[in-house]
Amino acid sequence: PPSACDGGGAPTADDTNISVPEGGYAEEVASLEPGQRDAVFLRAIRDAGRECQHVQSSSTQGDVQGNPAWTAVCDNGSQWVIIIGRDGIAQVASVAELQAAAARQ
Question: 18: pLDDT confidence band, cut at 50, 70 and 90?
């Protein structure tokens, strides 16, 4: 299956090929319609090897270490923090895992 980094045609729920100029990745993601943005987040979550069949909603979470972050909620109730780096690479972390790690500190 294609990945979000392949470039190419217009994104759909099943095919999230998005061509973006060098840099400006976070701005491009932020400017997408909510359904398109959720499809990009779904691809990022799946590419990270995490379980999610459908992103039901997403919201911006401000910056994490200078990079824009969003929270995505999947149909199975799982929640994911997605951080878009300046290089366009998305980091995906489970909200539950982050909360558990914070509680252990």
Answer: very low
